[in-house]
């Protein structure tokens, strides 16, 4: 059957429309099966309800009945009882503290909003709206409760959820407000007439007193001084300003004369630069003090960021015989002395080195020079590399320096010789370790004396050595040990002698020497230290 063109076009258009509708229906089905809330919105007056297993509304998200938008919780379980509060008395009230925990170590509910503070004069009271005196956040804190009458009060806490549900009250705590030793003051009850003259002095004033106007000493319309927010002012009896110190820029104005002084910027001058004067000034970051007489003799102090210098200058006409002197009298003996010392060491609380020159006096007929230092050098110049310096001492004088005392450990009993081929530390009962301190140079001499043998074979040996621990470490080694080789298998004759070892250690440091033994082979049946002879290690710190 043939169709005319118009009918054919209409049927074709109808088929295309059916295909488009089918596609739209499929798209709607896919959308219903996927998440939709992310592509949704809540219009005015709408909200989403969150319900529990019983169908009760627990929260609303969206528009609330009061016209606001947000998350509001509702209902829910009552919270457990909080821990008991800590109640302390205060002036006319109480101070209630909660630690933010629930009683009996119960976990704090996530929806706990705060705890109510309830106060009553009746012990065992049941909290209600009439006893509520405040609240404390869920994290815990302090709630002051004032004013209260001066009688015992009882305090309980009640937890409240964010949905407004109240829980059981806490255990009760009590305290009594304290009062002053007299009747309470009321507003405007203290006037000038109530304050006795001289009753309020410096001890009764706070360290900081802030005045709204000014503080005046003297006659308010005559000679006086004033202190206000602008600075300090002084007036004479004619109310003329004589002294002014400005609080904003620190500038000072004096209408009178500062007798005997001349102040110009950072320059302070006493006297006349052409004669006798004291001059204090700064220049390019350096501070100076000059004290000069009209003869030209002077004391000159210079202080820079890197050093400080003190100069004693002779008079202008002084010859080679001029002798400067810098002296002070000792507070105990009255003996004049000069002391030069290094900067104070914060670790030890005193100078590291000191030189004291003491002159004679009525109390002491002799002079003395005391040097307190770890190292002292005499040279022709100030170069430490000089090697031809000479120190000459009078034949009646002596030069004394205390020696570093040697330390020693002795073998009290033999080891078990259970190990061969390596050094083994002695136990403290066999040959105890010894602590010592090196001299400044660090040079140390170790002397080992021993008697023993190892007759296991013709080549077997026995050794007595040591290890060091402390500022640095030194391991036990045959190169630093007393050593005796067998005189033949089965030959039990002992070797008895000493060996001296020199070490370069860290200067002025603490060390511990631990004795150690070694046999090349054999055991306690072939090896022996003969305790009838000396078996020792001596440590001597050297200069």
Describe the structure.
The protein is mostly beta strands. Among the domains are: 1-30; 46-75, no CATH class; 86-175, Sandwich (Immunoglobulin-like); 270-313, no CATH class; 328-372, no CATH class; 407-541, icosahedral virus (Jelly Rolls, Sandwich). The chain has one helix and 38 strands. The strands form nine sheets. A six-stranded antiparallel β-sheet has the order 17-18-19-20-21-22, with no helix packed on it. The longest helix is centred in the N-terminal third of the chain and has 29 residues, at 5-33. The protein is extended, with a radius of gyration of 49 Å. 15% of the residues are buried. Mean pLDDT is 80; it is low at 319-327.
Give the helix proportion (percent range).
under 10%
Number of strands: 38
Task: Outline the low-pLDDT stretches.
Answer: 319-327
How many helices? The count is 1
Q: How does the overall form come out from the CA principal axes?
A: extended
CATH topology grouping of the domain at 407-541: Jelly Rolls
Major beta sheet, specifics?
A: 6 strands, antiparallel
Oligomer: single chain
Fraction of residues in β-strands? 35-45%
CA radius of gyration is 49 Å
Q: Pairing-aware structural class of the strands and helices?
A: mainly beta
The CATH H-level superfamily of the domain at 407-541 is icosahedral virus
Question: How far do the termini sit from each other?
Answer: 133 Å
Architecture of the domain at 407-541, CATH level 2? Sandwich
Average pLDDT across residues?
A: 80
The main sheet orders its strands as 17-18-19-20-21-22
Q: Determine and state the CATH class of the domain at 407-541.
A: Mainly Beta
């Amino acid at each position: 059957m043939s169709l005319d063109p118009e009918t054919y076009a209409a049927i074709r258009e109808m088929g295309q429309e059916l295909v488009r509708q089918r596609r739209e229906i499929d798209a709607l089905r896919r959308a219903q099966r996927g998440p939709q809330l992310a592509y949704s919105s809540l219009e005015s007056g709408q909200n989403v309800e969150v319900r529990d297993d019983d169908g009760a509304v627990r929260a609303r998200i969206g528009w609330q009945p009061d016209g606001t938008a947000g998350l509001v919780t509702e209902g829910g379980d009552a919270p457990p009882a909080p821990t008991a509060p800590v109640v302390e008395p205060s002036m006319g009230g109480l101070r209630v503290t909660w630690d933010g925990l629930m009683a009996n170590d119960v976990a704090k509910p996530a929806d706990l909003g705060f705890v109510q503070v309830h106060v009553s004069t009746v012990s065992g009271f049941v909290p209600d709206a009439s006893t509520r005196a405040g609240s404390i956040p869920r994290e815990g804190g302090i709630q002051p409760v004032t004013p209260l009458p001066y009688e015992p009060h009882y305090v309980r806490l009640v937890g409240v959820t964010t949905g407004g549900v109240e829980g059981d009250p806490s255990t009760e705590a009590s305290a009594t407000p304290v009062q002053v030793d007299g009747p309470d003051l009321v507003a405007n009850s203290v006037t000038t007439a109530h304050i006795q003259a001289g009753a309020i002095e410096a001890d009764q004033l706070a360290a900081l007193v802030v005045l709204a106007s000014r503080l005046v000493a003297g006659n308010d319309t005559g000679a006086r001084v004033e202190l206000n927010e602008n600075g300090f002012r002084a007036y004479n009896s004619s109310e003329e300003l004589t002294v002014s110190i400005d609080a904003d820029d620190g500038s000072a104005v004096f209408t009178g004369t500062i007798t005997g002084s001349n102040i110009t910027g950072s320059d302070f001058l006493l006297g006349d630069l052409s004669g006798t004067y004291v001059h204090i000034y700064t220049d390019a970051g350096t501070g100076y003090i000059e004290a000069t007489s009209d003869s030209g003799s002077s004391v000159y102090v210079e202080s820079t960021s890197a050093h400080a210098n003190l100069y004693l200058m002779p008079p202008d006409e002084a010859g080679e015989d001029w002798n400067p002197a810098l002296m002070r009298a000792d507070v105990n003996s009255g003996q004049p002395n000069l002391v030069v010392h290094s900067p104070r060491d914060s670790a030890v609380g005193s100078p590291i080195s000191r030189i004291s020159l003491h002159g004679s006096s009525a109390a002491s007929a002799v002079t003395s020079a005391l040097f307190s230092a770890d190292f002292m050098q005499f040279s022709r110049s100030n170069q430490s590399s000089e090697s031809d310096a000479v120190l000459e001492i009078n034949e009646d004088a002596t030069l004394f320096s205390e020696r570093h005392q040697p330390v020693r450990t002795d073998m009290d009993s033999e080891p078990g010789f259970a190990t061969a081929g390596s050094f083994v530390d002695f136990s403290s009962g066999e040959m105890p370790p010894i602590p010592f301190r090196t001299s400044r140079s660090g040079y140390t001499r170790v002397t080992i004396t021993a008697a023993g043998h190892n007759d296991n074979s013709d080549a077997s040996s026995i050794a007595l050595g040591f290890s060091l621990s402390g500022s640095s470490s030194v391991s036990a080694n045959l190169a630093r040990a007393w050593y005796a080789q067998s005189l033949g298998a089965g030959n039990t004759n002992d070797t008895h002698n000493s060996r001296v070892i020199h070490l370069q250690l860290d200067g002025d440091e603490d060390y511990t020497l631990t004795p150690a033994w070694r046999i090349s082979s054999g055991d306690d049946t072939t090896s022996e230290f003969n305790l009838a002879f000396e078996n020792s290690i001596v440590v001597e710190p050297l200069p």
